[in-house]
Amino acid sequence: MSGLSINALCAGYGKRKIIDNLTISTLSRGEVTVLLGPNGCGKSTLLRALAGLNRASGEAWLDEVNLLSLPLARRAEKVVFLPQSLPQGVHLQVLESVIVAQRASGAERNQARAIALLEELGIAHLAMNYLDRLSGGQKQLVGLAQSLICRPSLLLLDEPLSALDLNYQFHVMDVVSRETRIRDMVTLVVVHDINIALRHATQVIMLKEGRLIDSGDPQTVISAESFAQVYGVRGRVERCSQGKALVIVDGVIEK
Fold first, then answer.
1. 14 backbone dihedrals φ, ψ, rounded to 5°
2. What does the alpha-carbon distance between residue 239 and residue 43 come to, in Å, rounded to a whole number?
3. Residue 179: its pLDDT value, please?
4. According to DSSP H, which parts of 121-228 are helical?
5. Residue limits of the ABC transporter domain (predicted)?
6. What is the C-alpha to C-alpha distance for residues 166 and 101, in angstroms, rounded to an integer?
7. I want to staple 235 with a disulfide (CB 3.0 to 4.6 A). Which of 42, 163, 222, 227 is the partner?
């Protein structure tokens, strides 16, 4: 099956190991996988390791290619990583920055495609604005447009919703899900809202202290037991009026 599979991956910073012997079965193309876990559990480290920005050992197979064996330039042809915040002080117009990302990926200049993507994300009205004059949330949306225009095989999004209001969070995840399906990408997204994972993820991966706790269908993996083990909170999964699962947190488990 085509997709991403990870075998015995270890990653960290300097001599400090954050991810320890992580193995994950195939994450299929056309599907969104959400990474869940407390702060410092290794979610961002995993994305950075796959992108080639952290030291790592083990294997990360994208289809039939081990990403960890590729030079950074060749890996960048297949993988796009969107960090939590964009570089500061970039004096480019929004549309120009998206086209620059498009050309950097090796694609032909396609201004119509760039404008359509800005429209899809609800920021076409910002096309002629400069990046260094945008709000944090607007910059996140531009960063997402820059990532999607590249049409990678593997899309890595590190907390792309953190500066967005509730309406935009759902809208952006709808766009990411649709683009993932249409472009047949493997997409990994770090979020902290478990209800976002229940609504949009095909699979979830739960990490704690750099180790895999569980992975699979979010309707199965996300449970009161997993809340307690991973987050140290009491919670329950209930059904809303539309029949969809909804997480309710009751409180912190006292140690």
1. 60, -125
2. 28
3. 93
4. 136-148, 166-183, 194-200, 218-221, 224-226
5. 4-234
6. 27
7. 227
Place of tokens 């269908």: 217
Q: Give me the residues paired with residue 11 across strands.
A: 19, 56
The pLDDT-based confidence of 53 (bands split at 50, 70, 90) is: very high
Sorting pLDDT into bands at 50, 70 and 90, what band is 216? very high
The H-or-E segment that residue 22 falls in is strand 16-28
pLDDT tens sequence across 3-43: 999 999 999 988 889 999 999 999 999 999 999 999 999 99
* Gap between the Cα atoms of 193 and 180, Å rounded: 20
CA angle in degrees (0–180, nearest 5) for 52-53-57: 55
| Structural tokens at position 15 | 């001599």
What angle, 0 to 180 degrees and rounded to 10, lies between the N-to-C axes of helices 166-183 and 136-148?
A: 10
Q: Among positive and negative, which fits the CA dihedral 128, 131, 134, 138? A: positive
CB atoms within 10 A of CB 216: 14
State whether residue 101 is helix, strand or coil.
Answer: helix
Q: Which two tokens stand for residue 156?
A: 């890595």
Of 83, 82, 79, residue with least CA distance to 51: 79
